TrEMBL record:
The lineage of its organism: Bacteria, Bacillati, Actinomycetota, Actinomycetes, Micrococcales. This is CDP-alcohol phosphatidyltransferase family protein. It comes from Microcella daejeonensis. Belongs to the CDP-alcohol phosphatidyltransferase class-I family. One of its GO terms (cellular component) is membrane. The keyword Lipid metabolism applies.
Length: 218
């Protein structure tokens, strides 16, 4: 047996309870932009809505970099960041459904899955379990949906590119919705296993996060 010690990977950066950090402020700005985006979509101001999406995406990228580089990862940030993503998706799909660009069944599919996750969170809390780890399928679904709906808005803003953007947007939207529910089914199964006592799990969420992203999505 080798006498050399086996290297142990360094733990991820600690997650603090701080509130007033630059990443959290950027996430708060993103949340404030959600109703602005919805109003613009409903009013048919698609170019302005796209500008809001671009600003939101840039701030999302920036707050992740700042959080990692300056050790400003916080529990609040882990809530605000994915909340902003989901609310932008919800605002986009509702606005486009009102304008009859997308069908209402897509709204029901996406909202229904999020409602299910909220209920699963309540069940886990009642059994003194922390949040489930985010599955990579959930992250892929959020990524696909976050860009699918703005691409559909782009086709509305510039009809001349609609022949390209509409199929792309719909492909991402349908694939994202499928992955959204696939991840939801995995969360449901894991929750049932935990509640039935067939799978061990820590009662609280980890205080460490992956360096690849400050927040958890999906």
């Amino acid at each position: 047996m080798s006498e050399h010690p086996v290297p142990v990977p360094a733990p991820g950066p600690a997650v603090s309870d701080r509130v007033l950090t630059i990443p959290n402020l950027l996430s708060a700005v993103r949340l404030l932009l959600v109703p602005v985006f919805l109003v613009l979509v409903l009013a048919g101001e698609d170019v302005a809505a796209l500008v809001v999406i671009i600003i939101s995406s840039a701030s999302d990228y920036l707050d992740g970099i700042i959080a990692r580089r300056f050790d400003q990862m916080t529990r609040l940030g882990r809530l605000l960041d994915p909340a902003a993503d989901r609310l932008f998706i919800l605002a986009a799909v509702i606005g486009l459904a009102v304008r009859e660009v997308v069908p209402w069944w897509l709204v029901i599919v996406l909202v229904g899955r999020d409602v299910m996750l909220v209920l699963l969170g309540v069940v886990l809390a009642q059994h003194r379990y922390g949040p489930l780890p985010v599955h990579h399928l959930g992250k892929l679904a959020t990524f696909a949906l976050f860009y699918a709906l703005p691409i559909l808005v782009l086709g509305q803003a510039f009809p001349e590119v609609g022949a390209f953007t509409d199929p792309l947007g719909w492909a991402l939207a349908l694939w994202g919705a499928f992955l959204y529910w696939w991840a939801g089914a995995l969360y449901l199964r894991q929750t049932l296993d935990l509640v039935r006592g067939s799978e061990p799990w820590r009662p609280v969420a980890s205080d460490r996060v992956d360096d690849s992203r400050r927040s958890t999505d999906g």
